[in-house]
Amino acid sequence: MRQVLVAGGGRSGSAVARALAACGDAVRIVDARPEAVSGELAALGVRYAGDLKVVPDDVDLVVTSPGWPPTQPLLADALRRGLPVVGEVEIAWELRDRRIPWLAVTGTNGKTTTVGMLTAILRAGGLQAAEVGNVGPPVIDAVVGADLDYDVFAVELSSFQLHWGPSITPAAGALLNIAADHLDWHGSLAAYAADKTRVWGGGASLAVINADDPHVVQLAAALPAHARVIRFTLGEPADGELGVRDGILVDRSVLGGGDEQLLPADEIRPPGPHNVANALAAAALARSVGITAGEVAQGLRDYRPGEHRNVTVARIPMGGSSIRFVNDSKATNAHAAEASLRSYARIVWIAGGLLKGAVAGDFGGLIEAVRDRLAAVVLVGRDRAVIGEALRRHAPDVRVIDIESAEHRGMAEAVSAATDLARAESGAHGGEVVVLMAPAAASMDMFTDYAERGRVFTDAARGQDGATS
Would you give the distance in Å from CA 396 to the centre of its chain? Predict the structure, then answer.
């Protein structure tokens, strides 16, 4: 019987405690809240260990919640003493049914959308697919506690989950992109990127690679010579790649028939080049388990985007044009915000929040790439001054409005100010103006999470004079 200490009694911690206790391990949960050990867990023999900073001497294994960094005192003590420290997904991998393939997705941005697309494609192909991981149900619940017999798992993996999952070797793994994010947790971009590459299983998995992302290409160059690699690009695909030809997604990889059309790029939802790239990655993963070109197309047409991901939530008619309000609250870093900003021609941008260690220099490339699209910018949130500094350096002629309120009403004030700016822009120049909330920052300074931020934005947009949803 192993003595297991579960660090954190949240969703993933409770799931892994339940699974390990059912397997016969002696499990204790470390948490600030005694109620983290529910009645169900207590009935399985799980005990509350308190809010420990030091690992008890009899512990054999520490299982951490994904958000706990290695510098957290309890984990630092375990690592210093040479105890194994892993995450919930690692335990799920240990307990998995080896007949069921894992198709894994990671990257700085686009993970959730890609996994959603992948799941829709797999189901269009007649497979029973579980969509699990970073934002879905804990993987371990699908592995050991599911009522259904699954054929395949579509797994979204964060850099945190990959850091704490050293043995995970999916059948195929896609790395969508790399940009500076979570540097406060990982300590450096190099460490963050190294954790992301674990999705390729050290070369044992089929590696799906974004050929348009120089950082991903550089990381892929370190794969062993025997590694199986499939590349995707938004350009004309070379032999062996997936790409776009004359506005049509095309598969020229060895996974298909050599040169097969999938579907028109303008049918991909949500819109935008970054989501076409996500669709190509999802197609590559799905084809690795035998999904046909027709099933890929049907699945992508069936896919319905989640909330808060580049979604139009309201419009105000303006004669022959309109003001459109777009909620992309899920754009929590500069890379994601740039992808969203590139989707529209004339924008009043609402940005700001909690920057997770990013500095003004991290926004220079974004602003230079989209400054010709910016009619104005409205800044909100704790770290808004950092983005404001980058705007002064790289787009000094763009008008910037600063919203000081750090409460929910700050978003309402931002939407009101952005609407006034959009009305003036549309009146002066005509054409559609998009009020885009793509914050390039996390939400926890003002909101519970990005979803709450998106809901507050949506309510404020629909409350503007003349707005229709």
Answer: 31
Residue type, 193: A
Q: Are 223 and 201 in contact (CB under 8 A)?
A: no
pLDDT in tens, 387-428: 999 999 999 999 999 999 878 889 999 999 999 999 999 888
User: If you classify domain 311-462 with CATH, what class do you get?
Assistant: alpha beta
Domain ranges across the chain: 3-83, 91-302, 311-462
Q: What are phi and psi of 96, to 5 degrees?
A: -65, 160
Pairing assessment for the beta strands 241-245 and 152-156 based on DSSP bridges:
unpaired
CATH topology of domain 3-83: Rossmann fold (3.40.50)
DSSP reduced 3-state for 7 = strand
CA-atom Rg of the chain in angstroms: 23
Coil, strand or helix: which one is 157? coil
**Which residue type does 152 have?**
V
Q: 232 near 241, Cβ under 8 Å? A: yes
CA distance 462 to 399: 24
Contact status, residue 291 vs residue 297, Cβ threshold 8 Å: no
The alpha carbon of residue 468 and the mean position of all alpha carbons in its chain are separated, in whole angstroms, by 30
- Say what the pTM is: 0.77
- pLDDT tens, position by position, 339-349: 889 889 999 99
**DSSP state, 354?**
B
Contact 171, 288 (CB under 8 A): yes
Specify the CATH superfamily of domain 91-302: Mur-like, catalytic domain (3.40.1190.10)
Predicted pLDDT of residue 309:
80
**Residues written for the chain:** 469
- Per-residue buried b or exposed e for 74-104, using 16+ beta carbons within 10 Å of the residue's own CB: bbbbbeeeeeebbbbbbbbbebbeeebbbbb
